[in-house]
Write a sequence for this structure.
């Protein structure tokens, strides 16, 4: 047993080991981001559609499903963040003296700012959870509606109310832009770290990454903009 | 003094087998007690250090580069010969032996050459097992090509970087032994002197090039694997750091220097473009497999663009003079033919010192893609340096100093006349005679290191008490003082000229008087001028900086000081050898058609020079050469 | 041929002391000269003024030994693609240019003097597994082991690495992954390297981490800077080989642990 843990801790201690964990958790989070967006787009289908979706999430596995997902996602976020922060610190330490002139030849700005886009997204996630999940500083918890004769949380009204307030919408849009930037590098990068990329697939992963990042931004921004600027739902 | 080469008796083909049988063995337990000092980490040094460590000896290996992987063997491009006969084209150990003796213009020691040919096949096996990525055929078998003067395809290659790959192989073997604790590596450490105790080489003095510390290292035997002295010409294809210091200092401690006048001029180098030039770049002579060498027939065409010169006005002089070998004529012959064409006023490019190497025909025959596959990296290199594309216009090439066949005299065991001092690879004199064939340098370096010295060193060590001399011995103290004083001398010299300016002047002088063609008058003039220049070097040198830190100028000063002394021996040897052979061409000794005229009656010997304390008056010792297997004949490539 | 007038900003430093940029005027530099020959001319002039010349690493001057380094205008080995500093020629610059010349900067490459850095870390990584354990004299006949041309060519692509450290210098994280992956990849690809593949991979990566290099973030600046154009696909392979080796080490049967990094 301890031999396994020794090896695991050596794996985590190594640069490649940490990167593999970052890639694997990144893959999970990419899946989450996509599912989350598709669910939220139900708002354009109608009040009942998104409320039913919200109710389903809350009640799956007698209410345990959401906690399994939350804990799983929390673990992924923690590993993703702790490992990348530790990798970044090591990388900074690897060049204590800066160049007088340093010219990037091929890397994108997005790839060079992953830690900043990532940490901002983390701050956003905390805000987002306080805003829509823990309902801190608002009365969204009291929004109720009836669905199939059952009293359920009125997600639809909460979202409309949430994005009708400009500061929140602006922060959401900034966060989505940074997520887009983060994904534009992170998506294809994870295939490289997992040892999957080839000369032929790398360009495909790159383009797919840009497309995915754009899709996530467009989908999420559509919700915010249609409510905030075009008064959808009010 | 009589020179005993310790050549085993018996038929030529059996000598090495017999010698291995007769060689001494050292008990594995005792091997650990012996320390062997290996100076240099090129093909010979790295392979010797690794193999001796595998056998159980304690090895200390020294190199002046920052890593053993950077030794200049790395720059060899073309390939390595081996008598594998994988091509079924009639090759054999005997044929490789024959070609090498003949190619060396009958000035090599037959027994050594035969041994070299025998172990050539083992080298390829060894390198492949290490993971050296030699070129292969689709079926997975090793590919070969014909190379510089050979009529069979026996050259193994790894693109145009064979030396690099072989050195990285030897370096990996060295790393394996460093990791195992058998070899202690000293990078950025330059050897300054050999220490002899009661006539035996028992250690060396080194300078740490980072801290400047001068240190003594004692051992039971010393191996010099320090390469050639081509940089005496300043401009050569050698790396900037290549130097004669190790072998010259050993010579001054009693080791005989043999045949220094045998210097090889490589025919296919990029011509000099200006006086700021620091080195010459070699283009692999494999280019001659597909390139055709020519100059304009008429002097007045030399200024024209090559495309403006009609086919009928081109002189493909190698094909004309040597119909059976054509563009693949041996190096010395090709080089001299280029010089003759330029002397005739038909040279091309800046200063008229260049000839064309034209790929137009090969490109139209095989397509540019095939040519790019074969020589792509060489064409790119040419374009980077000259700004011209060899796909569109012919390359311009000119000969440059490339390799030195002369070196410290060694016997069949690779031991010099100084007991304990062994000399391997280019640093010794033994295998190439007056001229080295293409793709044979890599072969010799690895043969000496992997296969010869591991057997023969025991013949010396078995008579030694391990660890009998330590660095506390008074001889080491004395040598330390001498080296320290010399270093201080350079730093205290308050002259006006930089080391490089002296080196350039010396190089130009030696190239002019002792280069591709030599005369008695020219050499006599050089012998008058060199001591004068050496005197000026002593009084007018300026070396900034300090001795107890990294100081590249100080390193160069020590090396150039030795070149200044060595150059005199080089010219003396060239003047004494009143014949032309291989890389040594005396203008007075040639046939009416310009071919080299050997004098077997009077000069069929290796000239082993003994230091007497006066650079101008060394003692000549002769090792007569006899040819039992390959009969003396006029070398003809017509 | 024409001459260039250049302004240099050259890093000057003694080991263990802080360094600084020195402004050096370099008039009348022949455009056919190589970058190092330009430095030779500059040094010759410094010496004639009684000043200490700029120390820099160099040896073969034909792009193969990997000794020359220098960050030139923010790029390792300067602006020319697939070219070492020694093969960079001054015709790539224009008169009036200001040229920044700095050492390769990384914690694992401490400065010895001026532009000279200690790249011994690369040797130690190689010693942690960059070899096939074969004794001299032990091998079978070279053709007894057929290796397909594609495999041999690919191994040669990796083997072309000259160990100069440009990949480390170019990387914003000072990561050595391109070097390590090329060295491990050559042997991990060939049949000769299979018996020691896992040991080699674990050992070399651990030594790389121990030397203080940064982490790869898949931006491929290394590939763009590499004078031998080593592909980042070798990094892909190293990631894969490492994952496999680590899983085997963690969950497989016990055996002696790989060295390196301890």
């Amino acid at each position: 047993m301890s031999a396994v843990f020794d090896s695991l801790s050596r794996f985590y201690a190594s640069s490649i080991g940490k990167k593999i964990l970052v890639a694997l958790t990144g893959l999970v989070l990419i899946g989450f981001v996509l599912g989350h967006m598709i669910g939220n787009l139900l708002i354009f289908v109608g009040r009942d559609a998104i409320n039913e979706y919200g109710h389903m999430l809350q009640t799956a596995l007698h209410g345990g499903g959401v906690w399994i997902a939350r804990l799983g996602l929390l673990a992924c976020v923690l590993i993703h963040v702790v490992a990348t922060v530790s990798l970044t610190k090591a990388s900074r330490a690897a060049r204590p003296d800066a160049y007088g002139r340093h010219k990037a030849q091929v890397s994108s700005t997005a790839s060079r700012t992953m830690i900043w886009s990532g940490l901002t997204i983390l701050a956003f996630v905390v805000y987002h959870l306080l805003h829509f999940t823990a309902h801190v500083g608002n009365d969204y918890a009291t929004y109720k509606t009836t669905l199939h004769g059952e009293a359920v949380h009125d997600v639809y009204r909460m979202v409309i109310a949430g994005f009708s307030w400009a500061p929140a919408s602006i922060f959401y849009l900034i966060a989505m832009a940074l997520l887009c930037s983060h994904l534009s590098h992170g998506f294809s990068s994870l295939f490289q770290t997992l040892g999957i990329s080839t000369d032929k697939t790398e360009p495909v992963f790159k383009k797919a990454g840009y497309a995915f990042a754009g899709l996530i931004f467009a989908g999420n921004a559509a919700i915010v903009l249609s409510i905030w600027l075009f008064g959808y739902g009010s | 003094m009589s020179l005993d080469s310790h050549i085993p008796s018996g038929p030529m083909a059996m000598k090495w087998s017999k010698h291995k049988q007769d060689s001494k063995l050292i008990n594995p337990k005792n091997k650990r007690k012996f320390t062997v000092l290996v100076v240099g980490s090129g093909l010979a040094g790295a392979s010797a250090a690794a193999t001796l460590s595998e056998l159980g000896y304690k090895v200390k290996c020294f190199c002046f580069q920052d890593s053993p992987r950077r030794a200049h063997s790395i720059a060899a491009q073309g390939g390595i010969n081996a008598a594998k006969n994988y091509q079924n084209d009639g090759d054999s150990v005997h044929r490789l032996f024959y070609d090498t003796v003949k190619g060396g213009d009958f000035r090599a020691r037959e027994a050594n050459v035969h041994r070299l040919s025998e172990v050539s096949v083992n080298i390829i096996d060894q390198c492949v097992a290490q993971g050296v990525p030699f070129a292969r055929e689709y079926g997975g078998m090793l590919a070969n090509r014909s190379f510089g003067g050979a009529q069979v395809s026996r050259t193994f290659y790894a693109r145009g970087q064979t030396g690099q790959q072989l050195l990285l192989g030897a370096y990996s073997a060295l790393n394996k032994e460093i990791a195992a604790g058998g070899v202690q590596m000293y990078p950025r450490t330059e050897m300054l002197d050999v220490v002899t105790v009661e006539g035996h080489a028992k250690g060396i003095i080194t300078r740490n090039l980072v801290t400047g510390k001068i240190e003594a290292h004692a051992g039971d035997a010393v191996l010099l694997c320090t390469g050639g002295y081509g940089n005496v010409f300043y401009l050569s294809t050698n790396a900037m750091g290549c130097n004669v210091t190790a072998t010259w200092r050993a010579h001054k401690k009693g080791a005989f220097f043999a045949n220094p006048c045998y210097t090889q001029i490589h025919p296919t180098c990029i011509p000099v473009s200006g006086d700021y030039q620091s080195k010459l770049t070699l283009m692999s002579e494999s280019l001659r497999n597909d390139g055709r060498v020519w100059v304009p027939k008429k002097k007045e065409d030399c200024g024209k663009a090559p495309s403006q010169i009609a086919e009928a006005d081109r002189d493909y002089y190698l094909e004309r003079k040597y119909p059976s070998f054509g563009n693949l004529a041996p190096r010395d012959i090709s080089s001299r033919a280029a010089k003759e064409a330029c002397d005739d006023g038909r040279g091309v490019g800046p200063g008229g010192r260049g000839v064309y190497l034209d790929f137009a025909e090969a490109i139209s025959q095989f397509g540019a893609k095939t040519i790019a596959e074969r020589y792509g990296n060489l064409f790119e290199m040419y374009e980077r340096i000259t700004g011209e594309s060899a796909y569109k216009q012919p390359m311009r090439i000119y000969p440059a100093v490339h390799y030195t066949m002369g070196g410290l005299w060694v016997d069949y065991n690779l031991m010099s006349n100084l007991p304990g001092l062994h000399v391997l690879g280019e640093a010794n004199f033994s295998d190439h005679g007056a001229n080295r064939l293409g793709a044979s340098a890599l072969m010799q370096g690895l043969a000496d290191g992997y296969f010869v010295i591991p057997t023969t060193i025991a013949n010396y060590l078995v008579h030694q008490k391990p660890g009998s001399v330590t660095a506390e011995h008074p001889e080491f103290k004395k040598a330390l003082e001498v080296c320290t004083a010399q270093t201080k001398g350079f730093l205290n010299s308050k002259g006006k000229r930089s080391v490089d300016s002296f080196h350039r002047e010396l190089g130009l002088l030696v190239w002019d008087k002792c280069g591709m063609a030599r005369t008695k008058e020219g050499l006599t003039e050089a012998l008058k001028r060199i001591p004068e220049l050496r005197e000026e070097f002593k009084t007018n040198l300026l070396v900034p900086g300090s001795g107890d830190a990294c100081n590249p100028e100080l390193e160069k000063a020590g090396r150039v000081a030795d070149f200044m002394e060595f150059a005199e021996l080089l010219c003396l040897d060239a003047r004494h050898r009143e014949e032309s052979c291989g890389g040594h061409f005396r203008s007075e000794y040639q046939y009416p058609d310009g071919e080299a005229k050997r004098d077997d009656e009077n000069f069929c010997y290796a000239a082993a020079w003994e230091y007497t304390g006066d650079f101008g008056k060394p003692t000549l010792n002769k090792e007569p050469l006899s040819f039992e297997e390959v009969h003396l004949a006029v070398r003809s490539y017509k | 041929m024409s001459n260039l007038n250049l302004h240099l900003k050259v890093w000057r430093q003694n080991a263990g002391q802080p360094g600084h940029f020195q402004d050096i005027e370099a008039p009348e530099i022949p455009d056919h000269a190589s970058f190092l020959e330009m430095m030779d001319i500059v040094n010759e002039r410094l010496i004639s003024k009684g000043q200490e010349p700029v120390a820099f690493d160099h040896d073969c001057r034909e792009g193969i030994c990997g000794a020359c380094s220098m960050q030139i205008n923010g790029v390792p080995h300067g602006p020319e693609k697939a070219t070492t500093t020694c093969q960079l020629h001054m015709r790539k610059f224009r008169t009036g240019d200001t040229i920044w010349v700095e050492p390769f900067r990384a914690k694992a490459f401490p400065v010895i003097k001026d532009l000279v850095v200690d790249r011994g870390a690369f040797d130690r990584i190689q010693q942690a597994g960059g070899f096939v354990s074969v004794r001299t004299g032990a091998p079978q006949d070279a053709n007894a082991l057929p290796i397909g041309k594609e495999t041999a060519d690919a191994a040669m692509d990796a083997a072309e690495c000259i160990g100069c450290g440009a990949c480390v210098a170019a990387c914003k994280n000072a990561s050595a992954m391109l070097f390590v992956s090329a060295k491990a990849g050559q042997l991990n690809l060939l049949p000769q390297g299979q018996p020691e593949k896992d040991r080699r991979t674990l050992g070399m990566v651990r030594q790389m981490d121990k030397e203080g290099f940064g982490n790869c973030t898949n931006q491929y600046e290394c590939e763009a800077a590499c004078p031998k154009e080593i592909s980042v696909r070798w990094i892909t392979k190293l990631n894969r080989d490492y994952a496999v080796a680590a899983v085997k080490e963690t969950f497989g049967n016990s055996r002696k642990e790989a060295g390196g990094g301890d």
